[in-house]
Amino acid sequence: MASTSSSRYAKHRRIGEDEESEEAEEEEEAEEELERFDDFTIASSWERFISEIEAICRQWLADGAKILMQKGAEGVPPFENLYMIKRELKHGKRIIAPLSASGVILDDPESTKLLSSVAIALSNCGSNWPAFVPVHDPSRKAYIGIQNLGTVFTRRFEADRIGSQVPIRLMHLEGLHELFLSKFVLSSTDFPARVKVHFSMKLSYRTPEYGHDNETLDSEATEPLTENEVANHPRKLWDDDCPWAEWYSAEDPVKGFELTAIWGERTFEETLEMAEVENASSFDADSWFLHPVVSQYMVDDSIGKFVGFASQLHLLVNVYESSVEAQFLEDFVADTSGQDNSKSSATVPPPSVIDRVMKDLFSDETGNYMEAENKYSRAMRGAPADSLFGQFCLHALWFGNCNIRAIAVLWIDFVREIRWCWEESERLPRMKNTSSIDLSSCLIHQKLQMLMICIERKKSLNREKGAGYKDETSNSTAVNKSRKGSAGVVPKMMLLNTFQEMHAPYTQDAPLMTEDMHEERLHAAEAFGNAIGLSGQLERDILCSDMSAFKAANPDAVFEDFIRWHSPGDWVSEDKTDGNAGWPPKGKLSQRMSEHGNVWRKIWNDAPPLPVSKQKSLLDPVREGEKVLHYLETLRPQQLLEQMVCTAFKSSADILNRTMHGGFKEMKTKMDQLYATMVSTLKSLQGNSDVNDLAGDLKRLCQVFEHIEKLLILAASIHWKLIDAPRLAQAIFYNYFNYYLPKMGTSLESICYEKEFTTKEKVGMYERDTVSNLFPPPTANQSWRKVLSMGNLLNGHEPMQREIIFSVQERISNGHYSSPTPLCTNDEQIQTHRMYISGTSNDLWVALSVTSWD
User: Fold this and answer.
1) Which of 326, 478, 483, 488 minimizes the C-alpha distance to 407?
2) Of the residues 391, 420, 453, 767, which has the fewest C-beta atoms closer than 10 A?
3) pLDDT value, residue 648
4) Three-class SS of residue 849?
């Protein structure tokens, strides 16, 4: 009984404890409910998040585009007033990022919540900026968006992309039209059966890349070509007919053309009408725009990647800097083991290459000297591009990558070949037949002209020695009494003693002299000049030759007769001026000619009466020829490189100036500026300026040369591709010229203000046939390999991109967008639905916007 009663007591006690615990739990839950009371007068974290977005938007609106650009905003390329700026939001743990660190895209509730937050913030700012949020997988580039259009309308956006396996229905305009209608025509009761859809389209075509046609034809050949046939039929390059092709082959700067054909806005009511548009010719488009696809090296900001005359001239300037290190060229040819790396690394081509260059230089060609028609060309003191030394400099630019050792080896072999021509009395190739020396050219070219004349004189003397001639000195009496070598009677002049007509004799030309010989003559005149101006033996020889010829033409002449003819200023006339002068004429010699011991009279007394044909030549060809060779063989490296730099710049510019570029006036102006810059810069090479200072100026000149060379090659490419549409070619080049102009500074660091060239030029109706010829019909092999999925073909080429806009417009006063308020009493139209479609047969991107009344 005791155990039973005790157990019953324990049970009642547990029941009592359970009741007490339940009461305690109820009290705790009541307290918790009181603790979780929300005070709606305090902003929530989400409201604070919206407030932070609003503050940032207000700051952006206040800053404007210029300040935002300074803060790191980036322009979106095709658009002028579209910028991208980033700002991180850090609002506790409530921040929602469109893309998390793991790469997971927001789900629908999150994306809608984020979009609503941004839209509320923009609305509070009074801004009509659209807001977008990415959705779905990143590869789809899908998004949703919203835009507040004021107090009445709201525009919502939706976009998606099909990256592969585009349905066939959506490859054609009919299927795309049906897709657009499906977004709002749910049944025939919603809209009339025939919906007026506004349509516009832009098609982009791309020409085949130049240079691939030959490869395609080779692949289609039925029989393979043998090695000999390939060698005999080399592949023709685009610039084979350009003047620079002899020295290098330039990469075609125009890789192709992009043609944009635009159909303006049209209205269609039936889907079948889309098929007619798709099958229409591209010539039916309202507008054509052409854009050249320019090679990357043309738009790249860096200098030095382009290989042409400018790059080799830069190497030649480096050689000029190092030319002061030695006194003789042979020092650079010697073994370089143990010397510095700059010399040892300079390679020299093998002997076979040297022989080929020498064979080309000394081929039997006469220099035509096709000088470029430029007023500055002759002011640069260089050799003509087609002359022997001009060709040597051009070969040196490409010989052994233009290093000092290669140039030294080439020059030594060059001079050796010139000596062989002299010793064998063979005419120098590439030298114009002339009896004068061009003092406006460089000294080496003058020396080669002198040597050319000496070779011809030496050959003439050898022929005379071989034929032999009779010595007529025994008949001196007959010679003295007969007239020899008369060039004609001198008008109104008679001999003083015999009253016979005075005859002018044939005289020897003044001996040819190069620039350095003229300087020597002037120095001699300064050092040894005398009262009668005879500065040396050369002047004495010339005077004696003239006196001998005068005596032969006038056997009875006296010294006074020679003075009246040769130096009228030394005859003082005393005749009256009334025209009744008697005979003999009254006058006398000047004071200097009548002095005792006058040199002129002494020479007259000693001069024999000999015509020019019997006189010894004033020019000793053997002596002068050996002097020329001595100069060439002992020329110092720096003197050689100075003349090579001038000639190389001049010859390169003259070759480029022969380029046919359609007469683009911008190109002609730039070439004139290049010549003027070269004249002012290269003029310093003729003085005693410091080599290091000159090298800096020459390197800057190389940069300017490169800019203009690239522009000229582009102009030639555009001209030849659009030769039948000169207006279009000129306009396209003008557009690129304006784009490239900011890059053409004189500093070593180039600045480009626009990274891409995107300007398009409108094609005239009469130019469309020429432009369509840029799209050659595809071959059978190409047509088989390429699946044509879209229409609107141009010579068999489908567009590389198609952009379409469908839209539906409604009046505000219609039932769907009407309002009982006075705000909507007008008859204005709005776009209720608009779809933008872009892509190809393998890639389709669709964006839809819907405007609704709130």
Assistant:
1) 326
2) 420
3) 95
4) strand
